[in-house]
Amino acid sequence: MNARTGLRIGTWLGVVVVCVFAFAKWQAAQEADRPQQLAWQQTYQQNLWAPVQQRTLTLAGVERVLGQGSLWMISADGEPRLVSRHQLESDGRQWRVQAVIALDEQQTASLVEAQAWQPDSPDQAVSPAVGQALAAYLVDRISMIPDQPLTLGHIEGTFGPAEVRMPVSQGEAWIYPRQGVVVAVSDEQAHSIMFGLHEEL
């Protein structure tokens, strides 16, 4: 085999390798875009998602399903919120499950005073004793926050095409009124899934 023939073979081998890698990348992209249902949606439909939309889910109910979490005072657009955080492993990734506890204005004001909370405060841990006292309180909504953003194929495979797409400051909100779900979307990825949207909203 002369040098010219060897060069041609090497060139063709290089082209083949590039094509193989390009095909593998295309195939991976197709897999990522293919609708894929999130397993936890069906697993917790009856004991979390349906009750929170029906306004019957309590903090105790969340803990029966997910175990005891940790209480935090957080700032949501400058407003105080008391949340219970839980960890969940599902669908090959880690999730933070965040349940917002429904407090009235007086209860919120008391907790803000006890925590010396300010709108620009970082997330503050709250005593577990508070959680015990609030066990029978209703949960207003629950957010599922993945450790890595989800493909939109996961969202459409789980909830179907978005019924409403609403522009927001950092992307879009995909809204599913009949399922009581809002998905935060930006850069063609989903960053959180919130349950507890009520029909009158």
Structure write-up:
With 201 residues, the chain is an alpha+beta fold. Helices cover 39% and strands 32% of the residues. The chain has seven helices and ten strands. The protein has helices at residues 3-33, 39-43, 45-53, 59-66, 105-115, 128-133, 152-159, and strands spanning 70-76, 79-90, 93-101, 124-126, 139-146, 150-151, 164-168, 171-176, 181-186, 189-195. Strands 1, 2, 3, 4, 5, 6, 7, 8, 9 and 10 form a ten-stranded antiparallel beta sheet that branches. The protein is globular and about 45 Å long. The chain starts with a helix and ends in a 6-residue tail after the last strand.
SSE layout:
Elements: H1 3-33, H2 39-43, H3 45-53, H4 59-66, E1 70-76, E2 79-90, E3 93-101, H5 105-115, E4 124-126, H6 128-133, E5 139-146, E6 150-151, H7 152-159, E7 164-168, E8 171-176, E9 181-186, E10 189-195
Antiparallel strand pairs: 1-2, 1-4, 2-3, 3-5, 5-10, 6-10, 7-8, 8-9, 9-10
* Poorly predicted ranges: 16-20, 28-32
Report the radius of gyration as a whole number of Å. Answer: 23 Å
How would you sum up the global shape? globular
- Structural class, from secondary structure content? alpha+beta
Biggest pleated-sheet summary? 10 strands, antiparallel
* Order of secondary-structure elements: HHHHEEEHEHEEHEEEE
Annotation, overall tally of beta strands: 10
Oligomer: single chain
Proportion in helices: 25-40%
